[in-house]
Design brief:
Blueprint: E1 5-9, E2 16-22, H1 32-42, E3 59-63, E4 65-66, E5 69-70, E6 75-80, H2 104-110, H3 117-123, H4 128-143, E7 148-156, E8 159-160, H5 170-178, H6 187-202, E9 209-216, H7 232-241, E10 246-251, E11 269-271, E12 283-285, E13 293-294, E14 297-298, E15 303-309, E16 320-322, E17 329-331, H8 342-365, H9 370-385
Antiparallel strand pairs: 1-2, 2-6, 3-6, 4-5, 7-8, 7-9, 9-15, 10-15, 11-12, 13-14, 16-17
Helix pairs in contact: 1-4, 1-8, 4-8, 7-8
C-alpha cells in the first residue's frame, strides 16, 4: 500500500487550486460538507482582506470517488477561483518592486526574471485552500477511529490566551472558538486580539500570532524512531513550516524545555487500569510537556503543536525595496491582502497536522480498503493490551 500523500497545483489568480491525494484506502465515506466547512473557516476570521468577499470556496471531486465513497485510486479535488485573471495584464500587471518578507525577490532571482508576478501567484497563501481540502478529507478517516483534531488561535500580537486544552473540554472549547471572530476560545482574549488587528489597520501595518492544534484519541506507536524521516514530530514540523508565513513550530512545551531541568520537563508515567481501553492504554501522565510524541512516536497522549505566523508581508504603506529593472530605491508594491490572517492560518495548520496524523496512522495500520485498516487497527490494539506477549516473538510455523 502506498503512503498517504498529496500534491497541490494552481496559482492565486488561475482557474483554481487542485489537490491530488494518493494512498487513501477504498471505502472511506466522503463528507463534502465537512470539507466545505473547513474551506469556509479558512476564508474567515477578523482582519481578512477583500478577496474573501469574492471567493466562496467549495470542493469539487474530479476522480477517486463514487457514490460518496473512496475508490482506492487517486482522489483529485478542485477548489475553483472566481477571481481568475492570470492572463489579464491590466488586472495582474508585472511586479518589479519586491515585497520584503515575501517570496518575490528570491523567486525572481531563482527564475531569472525581474517580474515577480509568477512567483507571487504561486507563493500566495491561496494555495492553502488545496492543503485544507486534503486535511479535511483525511479527517474523515481519522474520525472513524475516534481521532479528533482541534485548532485555535493562541495569540495575535501581544494578545494571548492562557486557556488550557484537554480532551474533556474539547466540545466546550470548540463552541467557544466557533463563536470567536479570531478563532480564539476565550472571549476576553478575542476582544484584545481584535484591538491589535484594528490598530494594525490604522497604522497600515500587519499582525501575526500563534496557532495551536491538539489531536485527541491518537493511539500510541504512530511514527518511528528507526529513521529520522519517519519521526512523526519531524513530519509534522515539516508540514507546518510549509504553510506560508510560518517561522517556527513547537511540540508540547516547545522551546521552554531549554529553560527547565529534566525533572520539570519529562512527563512521569503511571498506570491506571480503568483507562486501559482508552488511547493511552492505561499509561497516563500528569503532564503532557512532550506534546504526545516521544522518540518520534505517539505515546497515547494528545498531540500538541504550536506554530508561529509572522505578520503578512504586504503592507498598505509598503516597505523600502528596489525596482528590479533600475535598481533604484522604491517602496514595495501592494497586492490586495489581509491585515491579519492568523485565524485562517490556524485552520490550515489544524488540517495539515490532521493529514500527517492520518499518514502515520495508515503507515501503521494501512490496507487497500477501510475494512483492512479496521482489522489491522483492531489487531494492533488487542495485542498491545496483552503485553507481554507469550511467546515474546511471534513466529510462523513451518511445515
Amino acid at each position: 500500500m502506498p503512503t498517504l500523500d498529496y500534491q497541490t497545483a494552481g496559482e492565486s489568480h488561475g482557474p483554481g487550486m487542485l489537490t491530488i491525494v494518493t494512498g487513501m484506502p477504498a471505502g472511506v465515506p466522503i463528507d463534502a460538507d465537512a470539507i466545505n466547512t473547513e474551506l469556509a473557516r479558512r476564508q474567515g476570521g477578523y482582519g481578512r482582506g477583500g478577496r474573501q468577499r469574492i471567493e466562496t470556496d467549495t470542493v469539487e471531486f474530479l476522480s477517486g470517488v463514487r457514490l460518496g465513497m473512496t475508490l482506492g485510486s487517486p482522489i483529485a479535488m478542485r477548489v475553483a477561483n472566481k477571481d481568475s485573471r492570470m492572463d489579464d495584464v491590466e488586472r495582474t500587471p508585472p511586479v518589479y518592486r519586491p515585497r520584503p518578507g515575501h517570496a518575490d525577490l528570491a523567486g525572481s532571482l531563482k527564475w531569472l526574471t525581474t517580474d515577480c508576478r509568477g512567483t507571487l501567484e504561486r507563493a500566495s497563501a491561496r494555495e492553502t485552500a488545496a492543503r485544507v481540502a486534503a486535511g479535511a478529507l483525511a479527517r474523515g478517516l481519522l474520525k472513524l477511529f475516534g481521532i479528533e483534531v482541534f485548532g485555535f488561535v493562541r495569540s495575535v500580537g501581544t494578545a494571548v490566551t492562557d486557556i488550557s486544552v484537554t480532551p474533556e473540554k474539547h466540545q466546550e472549547l470548540l463552541r467557544a472558538r466557533d463563536a470567536s471572530e479570531t478563532y480564539c476560545p476565550d472571549a476576553e482574549a478575542t476582544k484584545k486580539q481584535i484591538e491589535v488587528i484594528r490598530q494594525a489597520k490604522v497604522d497600515k501595518d500587519t499582525a501575526g500570532g500563534l496557532c495551536e492544534a491538539h489531536v485527541f484519541g491518537v493511539p500510541p506507536g504512530l511514527g518511528s524512531c528507526v529513521d529520522w524521516r519517519l519521526k512523526l514530530d519531524a513530519r509534522i514540523a515539516y508540514a507546518v513550516m510549509g504553510i506560508q508565513a510560518f517561522k517556527s513550530v513547537e511540540m508540547g512545551m516547545g522551546r521552554r524545555v531549554s529553560e527547565l531541568p529534566g525533572s520539570q520537563v519529562h512527563d512521569p508515567i503511571r498506570y491506571d487500569r480503568s483507562r486501559a481501553d482508552g488511547p493511552s492504554l492505561g499509561f497516563i501522565r500528569d503532564t503532557n510537556n512532550a506534546g504526545g510524541v516521544e522518540g518520534g512516536m505517539t505515546n497515547g497522549q494528545p498531540v500538541v503543536v504550536t506554530g508561529a505566523m509572522k505578520p503578512i508581508s504586504t503592507l498598505l504603506r509598503g516597505l523600502p525595496s528596489v525596482d528590479l529593472n533600475t535598481k533604484e530605491a522604491q517602496q514595495s508594491d501592494y497586492e490586495r491582502s489581509d491585515v491579519c490572517a492568523v485565524s485562517a492560518a490556524s485552520v490550515v495548520m489544524e488540517n495539515v497536522v490532521a493529514f500527517e496524523i492520518a499518514r502515520a496512522f495508515l503507515d501503521k495500520t494501512g490496507g487497500d480498503s477501510l475494512a483492512e485498516v479496521q482489522a489491522h487497527h483492531g489487531a494492533y490494539m488487542d495485542l498491545v493490551k496483552i503485553l507481554p506477549l507469550d511467546p515474546p516473538i511471534m513466529t510462523i510455523a513451518k511445515d
